[in-house]
Amino acid sequence: MHRPNCLLRQSAALLLLLGSVSGLSSSKFRFKLNQLYEVNIGLENLRGTPLAFGDFSGQNDQLVDLFTATPDQKTVQLWEWRRSTKEFVHLESADIKVSSGFSVSNVIPGDYDMDGKLDVLVQSTSSKTKEVKMQLFLGDASKGFKEYEQVESANDALPFAFDYDGSGRIALLGGVPWSQRSDSSAPPTWVWATASAPPAPANATAPASPPKLLALTPMGLPASDATTKMCQPASPHSSAFIDLDGDCRADLFIVCQGNEEYQIWTSSKSGFVYSQTGRLPSGAGPVSFADMNGDGSLDMVVPIMGKTQIHILYNEQRPLCIGAAARKQAGECREFERICEADKQFKFTPPADSQVIDVAALWAGETLLGSVSDFQGQAPPAVRLGDMDLDGFPDLAFVTKRGNGETRVRLVRSVSCKSGECKVGSRKQLDGRSYVAVNDGVSALEQLGGVQDVSFFDVDGTGTLGLLVYYRDGKGQKRVTAMYNNFFTDAFFIKALACPHLSGKSCVGGIPGPAFKYVLVTDSGKKHVAQSAQAPQTAYRALFTPYTVIGIGRTNNYIEDFSVGSPGFLGHHERSFEGLIPNSRVVVFPVNSTQDWRLELYMNRSESTPYILATLLSSMGILAITVFVLGKLERKADQREKQRALHAINFDAL
Ligand SMILES: [Ca+2]
Ligand SMILES: [Ca+2]
Ligand SMILES: [Ca+2]
Ligand SMILES: [Ca+2]
Predict the structure, then answer these.
(1) Where does the secretion signal sit in this chain (predicted)?
(2) Mind listing the pLDDT tens digit for each residue in 21-54?
């Protein structure tokens, strides 16, 4: 299905029209003004901390369910999204209790056994010993979860999800495990991955025991890389599985112990190869990634905790070939047809040259919130990146604190720079962006005090990113609420998700590490390539949704080139699809050994669909009436004609 063909488009349009019949009566999220609205979506009764998003029921609708921890952090709860009532409902049968002496610190949802149903890995920490217990629960997509295996414990830092062997299966990467903690000669990084099934003994009568889905082994690296050791992840860390050299294949980004340096290991056919070590700004909080300047490379956004600065460290790669014929010959730029080509010379802007957003200059007297209060095993809240206005450039959401302890969610929009005003990067060659405070239409956010954390999510599945806000109310109770984004409902988007092809039709967890790279046209008509990543971080309540929302601005054109990369080591790790329709949901099933990737396209209902349907139905009605009336007139005329003919014959007979 390389090109979504005409028939597909027509049937999609028909489905869309039929779908909107039910949509005509739904007005839960119809608002008039361009602003944020706090919405009642069943979370009023929730007490606890949000942990992760996942699609438990797996209806392929890209609506998400929410995993939370109870206030005492002893139980994981699942809040399931009900389509009919448009609200979350606590699914009590899916509650998971953790062992006594341990507190839930994180969950990593995903399809661990590849049966098309969502499973969940629960990470809980002992505050006394720092042991991180990990339990894998397999889901049944309706009632809840059953414990499958006790995974070997980690020590202190939380392991995060990646693809170890290019199979599309979820594996975990972490530091020295609990069982090796006193062995000073133990390798610094370890992997929890699916062990290959042991061959059944020839004379066995009983079935072989089921394979371990997350068996512990030291991290294997190509023999050629014996010189540099992979560093042990810091605790807490913001390590990620994300494409950083531009080949659309996810690489490893590890925040090393001490929180001053990071290492990048690029993915290749032979495994993970050492690329570079870099420095983080001092006092760095959790690193977030997004293509901030829309040049096709994923950049770093680093808050300085408890201070007022957010640093943007640009990923400097070969630029696209635009009006640079000479450089094209020298191979200094990236051609449009080869947007998923690696640039081995890539590097990040050093901290001294980073672009800095000064929070205090936008909101006087406010600093970044340094920690989430009253949460054990915590990490500082990250800067959340999402394209709120769908213009193709990520915007920021974060939590600030005033001197008197009041906290607020703040939104910063990325806007274009006046030409030449902000050249960024170490050689001042990249186009930067300007960042402006969003102060209008956010009164719903202003009213919320005691905010602890925020994340982006698409509330009703229509493609605009709303907010999930975690706060403590006046009585100190842990609460969660949602904000509906009614600012920019007229811009276009693509919602993308890459899934393991083994899981068959349904897609619940996605796979770790896919990259989406695409050619966009800005509102001013300029072409550029941008990149997005699918849930690149999974430790420390990273709160990514399984799908990726990609803003494509107000140009209602087909997407010329939409490239998808998966971490596979075999054969083809990327494919490009042409002619995607704006406002559609795209589900890709990569088959890395062949070019047989499957792309499914779903159209989203737009605001005007009910009117189009009404117009279509009324025109059909008018046509039907016209046909009926004309038919009747015709019959009458026929009868008259016949009678006249009859009279004529009788007259002649006389
Ligand atoms: Ca499963
Ligand atoms: Ca890569
Ligand atoms: Ca970039
Ligand atoms: Ca934006």
Answers:
(1) 1-23
(2) 434 335 788 898 999 999 999 999 999 999 999 9
- Ligand 1 centroid–CA 137 distance in Å is 9
Measured at the alpha carbon of residue 66, what is the angle toward residues 64 and 71, in degrees to the nearest 5? 170
Question: 271-279 and 261-268: which strand pairing?
Answer: antiparallel
Nearest CA to 162 among 193, 189, 196, 121? 193
Give the distance (Å) from ligand 1 centre to CA of residue 378: 28
Give 497 Cα–ligand 4 centroid separation in angstroms: 20
Cβ proximity of 445 and 481 under 8 Å:
no
CA dist 440 and 505 (Å) reads 43
Q: How far is the CA of 395 from the centre of ligand 4 (A)?
A: 5
Torsion of CA 152, 158, 164, 166, to 10 degrees: 120
pLDDT tens column, 269-328: 888 999 999 999 999 999 999 999 999 999 999 999 888 999 999 999 988 887 655 466
Identify whether the C-beta of residue 386 lies closer than 8 Å to the C-beta of residue 397: yes
CB 125 within 8 A of CB 132: yes
By the CB criterion, residues less than 5 angstroms from ion ligand 2 are 243, 245, 247, 249, 251
Closest ligand relative to 273 C-alpha = 2
Provide the H-helix boundaries in 406-483: 443-446
The strand pairing partners of 291, in sequence order, are: none
Is the distance from CB of 87 to CB of 42 less than 8 angstroms? Answer: yes
User: How far is the centre of ligand 3, averaged over its atoms, from the C-alpha of 244 (Å)?
Assistant: 10
- The answer to whether 639 touches 632, Cβ cutoff 8 Å, is no
CA 441-442-444 angle, to 5 degrees, is: 115
CA of 289 to the centre of ligand 3 (A): 9
Residue 236 preceded by cis peptide, ω within 30: yes
Kindly write down the DSSP assignment for every residue of 45-68, as one continuous string.
Answer: G--SEEEEEE-SS--SS---EEEE
**Which ligand ends up closest to the CA of 213?**
1
Report pLDDT for 337: 80
Query: Structure tokens of 101?
Result: 């002496």
Quote the mean pLDDT of the chain. Answer: 87
Is the dihedral angle over the CA atoms 569, 121, 113, 508 positive or is it negative?
negative
pTM of the model: 0.88
pLDDT exceeding 70 applies to what percent of the chain?
89
Is the Cβ–Cβ distance between 269 and 569 less than 8 Å? yes
The rounded distance, in Å, linking the Cα atoms of 252 and 292 is 20
Please give the structure tokens belonging to residue 621: 């009605």
User: How close is the Cα of 157 to the center of ligand 1, in Å?
Assistant: 25
Mean pLDDT along residues 622-650? 89
How many whole angstroms separate alpha carbon 446 and alpha carbon 244?
A: 36
Cβ-contact 75, 69 below 8 angstroms: yes
Q: Which helix (H) or strand (E) holds 360?
A: helix 359-362
